[in-house]
Amino acid sequence: MSSATPANRWKNSAPHSAPATSPFSSLTPRSPSTNAFAEARDCVIVSTSTLELGIDVGDLDRVIQIDSPSSVASFLQRIGRTGRRAGTSRNCLFLATRPDTLLQAAGLLSLWARGWVEAVTPLPSPRHLVAQQLLAVTLQEHRIGDRLWPEQWNGLAPFASPLLSHLISEGFLDSDGGMLFVGPEAEKHFGRRHFMELTASFTAPPEFTVLAGRTEIGTTDPSVPTEERQGPRRLLLAGRSWQVTFIDWARRRAFVEPVEGGGVAKWQGSEARGLSYALTRAMRDALLGTDPDVKLTRRATATLAELRMDRAPHEVHPAGTLLVHDADAARWWTWAGYRAATLAASLGNLADPVQRPTDTHVRLRQDLSLADWKAARAELPDALTLPTVDPRAIRGLKFSVALPPRIATATLAERLADFDGALAAAQDPVRVE
Known about the structure:
Elements: E1 9-10, H1 36-39, E2 44-45, E3 63-66, H2 72-79, E4 92-95, H3 99-113, H4 127-141, E5 144-145, H5 157-169, E6 173-176, E7 179-182, H6 184-190, H7 192-195, E8 208-212, E9 215-220, E10 234-237, E11 240-248, E12 253-258, H8 277-287, H9 298-310, H10 312-315, E13 321-325, E14 330-333, H11 342-346, E15 362-364, H12 370-379, H13 405-416, H14 419-427, E16 430-432
Parallel strand pairs: 1-2, 3-4, 8-12, 13-16
Antiparallel strand pairs: 5-7, 6-7, 8-9, 10-11, 11-12, 13-14, 14-15
């Protein structure tokens, strides 16, 4: 698996628990590899995706990637740990555990071989951060003039003015004698630990802990609580089905009870929160016959061939997208990525209301008629709308409590939308089968 012999293995063991003779005994939380990895001749680091964030581990001989990252940028961060010494080259071995992850890896490596990488783009309309900055500058200055505050905004005052009015009317800011002060609502929501909450604009991924009684079952992907659903909310976790009985949005906890049969939703892990339009389309190309420009094992080659034989006739077509009527539903195989859930929202009542947005397809009503489909299809490019989100999910958007509910919901919906990808899929020819 690697040119180095893994004489020592580090598997989530705390530094203080290592034996005295271990090369990891000198590790501290601040320096996870300064001495151990730099000085050891042969060792292996077993890590989650956090290793790509810039921890200095020196030069690696090889990166072994289990399944596939969800972006080319993440892959570049990981393979970039190798090939730093003179006379060495960057290298990475992918070990796909399922056919789906092999297909994802093939698509990702095809994009990488073409020199493509995701653009760095800011999140759209960060209105919640505008509210945070208005409160933070008032806290910093102790008071600001109700006419002079735009001087702090470098010409962006019109963007903040409506939110300022809301903060004053809802008690987050007090107004007295032409001056603005931090109000009681701001103290109530953000005042703990000397307003610590206002000092950072980011938060940890809003994963939900799943509990059956007092027993922790696992964690859920944050995408699920943002989806509007009809009927009971179910999930698959720890090898069985669970029905959600209560969601504690403030504490990010989901309480469940066991049920028979599969749920309508699968809550996913950190590497499976939805793929981009470009990566999903590259996976479609792989299913249509494009091999990545890398060395494939015989098993990988055989598995790709099986995928193309079994799935390609029902999921992809070189001339456009496919609309296929299955036994349980009609599926429009868009291959447009997770955020093209925009398409499902834009199709209105033609989309199946009980579905989880996927990277590859939109599920439509089983009784969909060809006439209704053609009419909706013709209007779709001009009728794209924001995805629907559960209004309760805005509580996972930091500082959203300081926004009007309508604006907070729109802010979250814009983050889940991909109008460019949705429009490209909507304009593709559609083959009906």
